Amino acid sequence: MRLLPPSSIPPQVLSIVVDLGPRSSGGGAREASMLATVDRLLQLCHDFDFPATWAMDELAGHDLVQRIVQNGAGHEVAIRADDAWAGAGTGRGAFSHGLSRRVQQAEAAGLEITSICAEGPVCREHLDLLIKYGVDFVALSAGDVPVQGNLRTLRYGLWEIGPSIRLPEADTRWRPFGGPGRRTRATIDQAVSGQTLCMAIVRAAEMTESGHFLNFEKLLRHAHRRNRQGVLSLRTLGAISEQFRGHATPRPASSILRAA
Hints:
Elements: E1 13-19, H1 28-47, E2 53-56, H2 63-69, E3 76-81, H3 83-86, H4 92-108, E4 115-118, H5 127-132, E5 137-140, E6 151-155, E7 158-161, E8 165-167, H6 180-194, E9 197-203, H7 210-228, E10 233-234, H8 237-246
Parallel strand pairs: 1-2, 1-9, 1-10, 2-3, 3-4, 4-5, 5-7, 8-9
Antiparallel strand pairs: 6-7
């Protein structure tokens, strides 16, 4: 299944961010379960030729990094930020150390980081550090944001987006007039009709039932159908930020940074 060429990209976009959660320190069965989940998600993305953004913590020596980037579907890796070093009230030193260490881990793995994924809003006092380290997008994994108004500018060249779709959904029971799958399709169609950006968050650690993967497949199938109709683009956050930068004035050359 092939996507439309870039020259045909419409303004309405669906982006999938897979939140891999905190890295397991114990290994064993939990890590094996996560690897199996990621392999299953990767296969579904491959089936529909859908690139996704995969948010992970502590990239150094992470078995999932190569699994994702070598998949061949145009996936990207993002930094997963937690409140311990990126949340509201975090000191500048802790924020700078937490971010720079993870960026260095990514660079050592040959990756360029342009996005981070956070549970809640990152500390607003240190947004200049995100720009310093090349971050363009902050994706929020919590909340439930309408498609219209889910994207905002935090600072020149730095955007924040909230999730309009979350998988797995809390209520996956079958209903005669539509359940999670129907709601997901309706949200995608709202993005199409509104010519706007829609982000779906997939919490990998919570994908524990066959129905969860079936709903993810339904999302991909519907999005692929809309893409083939020429009304929806399927892109990673990094690809979206490239498109934004291509239509924006370059960032000022003068420094906007305070001491880290």
